[in-house]
Design a protein that fits this description.
Layout (H helix, E strand, L loop, with lengths): L6 H20 L27 E6 L7 H15 L3 E5 L10 H10 L6 E5 L4 H6 L7 H7 L7 H5 L2 E2 L2 E2 L2 E2 L1 E4 L2 E4 L1 H7 L7 H13 L3 E4 L3 H16 L1 H9 L7 H14 L11 H9 L3 E5 L3 H7 L14 E4 L6 E5 L1 E3 L8 H11 L2 H11 L2 E2 L11 H12 L1 E4 L9 H17 L2 H15 L4
Parallel strand pairs: 1-2, 1-3, 9-10, 12-15
Antiparallel strand pairs: 3-13, 4-5, 6-13, 7-12, 7-14, 8-10, 8-11
Helix pairs in contact: 2-14, 2-15, 9-10, 9-11, 11-18, 17-18
Bound molecules: beta-D-galactopyranose (GAL).
Beta-D-galactopyranose (GAL) binds next to loops.
Length: 446
């Protein structure tokens, strides 16, 4: 299989052109690629002017327990530092941004950007970059000294052609399996180290009338798919599927998809109707044994708006998803600076807080994530988050599909369509063929 180096540009270009055209038609005077008046020269401090003020609309999908608490905590830091601005929380409910990103696309097409929006580091940003919807943030990084306190590998994931496009606020881990230790003991099962072990434990659990694996709506199924692929293939082969050097038609991928198919047999029948936090709640309630979910679930578990538990007292437990011990499947939430007519000073003030130690140390302990910065106050983080910090520092890294790292939006949408069909017909052969075709049509495969 040949690697195409320019694949992401070609994959997103038609989508980008359509969005740009729509934006120009809606606002004939908009010039999305030219920086608006007031753009600071490189190196110039974009501090708020004496007249600065007004509303600052922040767009995200953080509405559940934990994620909403984290956002609120960062808003509080912003309010202390910038009382001249008023935050407008434009969060749209729906985990992984499924609803929010559709709303955002409509707003951008109408030339109505919020002051900043949440985007994942990695390929997801290419949609906005190619459409000319973002302004580079190099001078903000320079003047805030962020090159010294954010990993270079992370900055690479938010950069193209020497431009930096977003401010990462956190690192999340996708490949986590959650459970309640006392329940596992009662049911006589152990935390599975491999998916084969999970399938064995699942038989015991089903016999005890317990759902082996709690699942939610379709994006959580994609999340499960990526963790099964990682666990069954290993980090290198998993990475090769995304950079075009691997073979989606291989026997190893067939076997991994067959495992995925079997795992789905042990999930709750009402999965498609449940949000991610409702699926996670099944574990806490003792109706299900395990849930594979990113560590925003930890933020939910400890949230006063959620179960209000503590990782220190053993009321919930965690482990790498089966087969992925020693691998940290990562993603990062970041905020961008839109090109277009916005309250630019307010947006820059927000981004400065989002990248600051104070902002990140307020946000992440409640969000269930670790800071993107390398200089956090570790004592603010609970036992789970401290373990995640250690793993992030020492584990092998793999990028998340569902949360924007490894595939551009067009490719991810093609995988999602194939997954939807698979959930209806459960035909592994057809699914694998569709996944291989998706990589050729919208990814780096040829
Ligand atoms: C992810 C996002 C997380 C969390 C999760 C559930 O895509 O990166 O921060 O919000 O969705 O909503």
């Amino acid at each position: 299989m040949k690697v195409r180096t320019d694949w992401w540009r070609r994959a997103v270009a038609p989508l980008a052109a359509a969005l740009l055209l729509a934006a120009c038609q809606a606002t004939p005077t908009a010039t999305p690629t030219a920086p608006p008046a007031g753009t600071p020269e490189p190196g110039q401090t974009p501090a708020a002017s004496p007249q600065a003020g007004g509303e600052v609309e922040i767009f995200s999908w953080w509405t559940a327990g934990g994620e909403a608490d984290g956002l609120e905590a960062m808003f509080e830091v912003f309010a202390q530092k910038h009382p001249e601005f008023q935050i407008v929380n434009a969060a749209v409910a729906g985990g992984a941004g499924t609803n929010a990103r559709a709303v955002l696309a409509t707003r951008l097409a109408q030339g109505d950007p919020p002051e900043s929006w949440q985007g994942h580091a990695g390929q997801e940003l290419s949609t906005y970059i190619v459409a000319g919807q973002l302004e580079p943030l190099n001078s903000l990084f320079d003047e805030q000294g962020w090159h010294d306190v954010m990993p270079a590998t992370l900055i690479e994931q938010i950069s193209t052609d020497g431009n930096i496009w977003s401010v990462p606020v956190n690192i999340h881990r996708a490949n986590v399996m959650w459970y309640v230790p006392a329940n596992l003991e009662q049911w006589g099962v152990q935390v599975p180290q491999t998916w084969a072990e999970f399938l064995t434990a699942a038989e015991t659990l089903e016999a005890a009338g317990v759902t082996p694996l709690a699942l939610g709506e379709q994006w959580t199924v994609m999340h499960l798919l990526e963790t099964v692929l990682l666990g069954e293939l290993g980090a290198d082969a998993y990475a090769s599927l995304w950079d075009g050097s691997g073979d989606w038609n291989s026997a190893e991928v067939t076997a991994a998809l067959e495992t995925f198919d079997q795992v789905l047999d042990y999930t709750n029948a009402d999965a498609s109707t449940l949000a991610w936090e409702q699926a996670a709640q099944l574990v806490i309630d003792g109706q299900a044994a395990f849930n594979v979910m990113g560590d925003w679930a930890e933020g939910y578990f400890v949230s006063p708006a959620g179960p209000n538990l503590s990782p220190e007292d053993g009321s919930f437990g965690w482990a790498p998803a089966p087969g992925s011990s020693g691998v940290f499947q990562w993603l990062s939430d970041s905020f961008i600076l839109p090109a277009g007519e916005i309250n630019r000073e307010g947006a820059l003030a927000w981004l400065t807080v989002a990248g600051s130690k104070e902002g990140q140390d307020a946000f992440n302990p409640v969000k269930g994530s670790i800071p993107a910065r390398t200089d956090p106050d570790r004592s603010l983080y609970d036992a789970y988050l401290q373990s995640a910090m250690d793993d992030w520092a020492s584990d092998e890294l793999a990028g998340s599909l569902t949360h924007g790292v490894v595939a551009n939006d067009a490719w991810k949408a093609a995988i999602d369509t194939a997954l939807g069909l698979f959930l209806a017909d459960r035909n592994v052969g057809t699914f694998q063929t569709a996944l291989a075709a998706a990589c050729v049509a919208t990814g780096p495969c040829s």
